[in-house]
Amino acid sequence: MKLVYLLSLGVILSSCGAGKATVEDSSSTTNSTEEVVNETEEKITGAHINVDGTIKDMSAGQEGGGCNFVIEVEIDGKKVVLDPESLPTKYQKDGAKVVISFDYSRRVSNCPEAMPVILNEIEDQ
Fold first, then answer.
1. HEC letters along 55-80
2. Which CATH number does the domain 30-124 belong to among 1.10.10.60, 3.40.50.300, 3.30.200.20, 2.40.50.500?
3. Best CA proximity match to 122, nearest among 103, 108, 105, 107
4. What is the mean pLDDT of each run of 10 residues along the chain (125 residues)?
5. pTM, two decimal places
6. Residues 66-86: pLDDT tens digits?
7. What is the rounded distance in angstroms from the CA atom of residue 88 to the CA atom of residue 65?
8. How far apart are CA 61 and CA 13, in angstroms?
9. CA-CA distance, 33 to 11, in Å (whole number)?
């Protein structure tokens, strides 16, 4: 009985560190798009951001990858693609120049390379 108890205790103690190593390993593999999104998210979470942007229609062809209309902006010198939760029909024109105010959204984006956002304001540039 003592042998079973000691073996069980040994298995439990040896498995405690295994999960931690797995978490550390998975966090070290990121691609450049994820890094830009994460850096930008840290800077804008909870703050209204006002930027100039260009509407891009990514719904046609394979380029879209599940995207519809996105807004390309530049934040801190880096190009960032935003996936607005709802873009008014008036602005759904490829190449349209706009000024937007947005907040970061925690929803899942249909567009893998875009950051999901909620538009507070949008107007022509």
1. EEECCCCCCCCCCCEEEEEEECCEEE
2. 2.40.50.500
3. 103
4. 54 53 42 57 63 91 71 94 94 96 90 91 94
5. 0.61
6. 788 999 999 999 999 999 999
7. 21
8. 53
9. 40
